[in-house]
Amino acid sequence: MEMVNRPYAAAFEAHAVANPDVLCLSADLTSSCEIDGFRDRHPEQFLSLGMAEQNMLSFAGGLGLAGYRPFLHSFGVFLYRRPYDQLMASIAYPRRKVRLMGFLPGVTTPGGMTHQAIEDLSVMRTIPNMTVLESGDATEVESIVAAADSVDGPVYCRVLRGSVPRLFDTPLEIGRMRVLSEGRDVLVVTAGITTEEAIRARGALDAAGVSVRHLHLNTLKPFDAAQIVDHASSVRHGVVTLENHLVTGGIGSMVAEALAEAGLGRRLIRLGLQDSYAHGGSRPYLMKYYGMDALTLVRAIERLTGEESGIDEDALGAVRLDAVHSAVKAEAL
Amino acid sequence: MRNSRSTEDIALGIRRRVFEHAMRNNGGYLSQACSAAEQLAFLYNEALNLGPSTMPMVPEPFGGVPSAENRDYRTGAGYNGPFDAVHDRLFIAPAHYALVAYACLIETGRMAAEGLEMFNRDGSSVEMIGAEHSPGMEVHNGTLGIGLSTGAGLAYGRKRRGETGEVCVFMSDGEVQEGQTWEAVQAAAHHRIDNLWALMDVNRQQCDGAMDSVMEVGDIATKFRDFGAVVAEVDAHDLDALREARTTPHEGRPLIVLAHSSPTQGMDFLMRRFPRLHYVRFKTAEERAEMNEAIAAELGIPPVELEAH
């Protein structure tokens, strides 16, 4: 599997240079959000707003009034927890074209509670006028920049940084989920970093004779409930959601709401943080500790099918991860 | 657009309208009219370069909140004139001054007197706490402390586009208790945003009473200077002083004019309520009648005709 180094940095620079009304705003996390190179090469398009997020959000609302499309860079958690009031009044209500680029979503940071955006999706998706996107691989990180900037209103994006695997070879399209496999036993819904975990689990489950239908979401609002219901109705045993987030308010809740509103009775297991904060640690450790990894997913699927698959850590470790090519039929992956 | 009336006359008109409205509606934001009448009259009648209103004299009813579906949505900023490169923009940061600001729109010929009759009525855009669809408003400032940041962002953007129009933020001193105000000043200074100025009504009052009893804020002029602003201090009821303060050079920095005001100016009778002045209510009909007589006399008008209870 190809690993891409700092895909955001190059993608943002290319987009901003081509769009003079895009401004790059930072709140003292410039290199942490991979825009240090942009700052150095395009200082006239870069604004340092310091460690003062409340002002940054309202200031961005003012820039929006002047016709600019500011990209705000910080860790996701700093873009909504402290400046929530400003997010509502200065950005979301008036539908300013402000692009909130939230780095280090969920447990992708070792920074512990203060740095981990574990309820950002539940907060953002309840805000009227807001669009919510999440990138799951290097291709989606690259394409989330232009996609976000095409939205007529505010957007919150979960962005992956550093070395990011390339899973997909087609860009993120707003509102279009990826159908990664079309199995008949269980529906698995993932987004962000949990998609890679589910692909790993699927490899082992295929070998064990469990047929998984796997959806990857990159647009969390607007949420395509009808398609979720369609897919859920075509599997035998039920649905598992796996998210780098609290299960309340996030993808688990979205799927539950979709099934309930459609009157579709399917068992649903929601994996992710279970009404709990996380602590600081490495990403693999945290994903295992809090039950967001491939093995946790396998065990959940076993609960739905009622059969033990015999899959263990070693079997998952042996799965080869390949990129998802659009030319290849999803079933064959 | 210059009004043919004097700014003093407009300030008196604001006080009279707000007083009449408060009497008829059994209470209101009277002290804000006392402290800010000259300031708002000064802004609209002299200090700001505003074009003629682009909105109907009688405000349209509430037209829905902004949404992807609400294509006809517009703010109330058109009452301050067109959005073009040369005209100034004004934010009323303490949206609780809305009644006073509406009165000022009427006095300066930008809104019909009927507009005030719609104040705080269901389905009206003339809301009690100014919303961005309310006459003269461009953004929601009901959550105090966000106005200056918004103004700074717009000013930065306007400067970047080469527009000559400036951005003015009318502020209240209670906002200095919010941390965001200081974030805004330091950011405006850091980015040399000097097409931005603020006029702050320093009346030393807030919702719970006198500011010193709620939260002491110290010497705000020194604090603003330390955060990078140019500061001028004046008597808020002295128009010549306001005129002079407005011309204070502030290259590379925002200007903040601290207008020290009396929350009972022009309505001394209100001192009986001190320090509970934020929103004046009447406990009894007698109290209301007494205030009606006394303040009408101070403002040189007959007492307001009150409907029978």
Automatic annotation (TrEMBL), chain A:
Cite the entry's keywords alphabetically: Thiamine pyrophosphate
Among InterPro entries, the record links this protein to: PDH/Transketolase, THDP-binding, Transketo_C/PFOR_II, Transketolase-like_Pyr-bd, Transketolase_C
What are the names of the required cofactors?
Answer: thiamine diphosphate
Q: Name one Pfam family in it.
A: Transketolase_C
Which superkingdom? Bacteria
Domain Transketolase-like pyrimidine-binding, which positions?
2-166
Which PANTHER family does UniProt cross-reference here? Answer: PYRUVATE DEHYDROGENASE E1 COMPONENT, TRANSKETOLASE-LIKE PYRIMIDINE-BINDING DOMAIN-CONTAINING PROTEIN
Family recorded in the similarity comment? Belongs to the transketolase family.
List the protein's name: Transketolase
Organism lineage string: Bacteria, Pseudomonadati, Pseudomonadota, Alphaproteobacteria, Rhodobacterales
Automatic annotation (TrEMBL), chain B:
Does this entry carry the keyword Lipid biosynthesis?
Answer: no
Cofactor(s) needed: thiamine diphosphate
Q: Which UniProt keywords apply?
A: Thiamine pyrophosphate
Q: Domain Transketolase N-terminal, which positions?
A: 87-249
Q: Which family does it belong to?
A: Belongs to the transketolase family.
UniProt protein name: Transketolase
Give the originating organism: Paracoccus isoporae
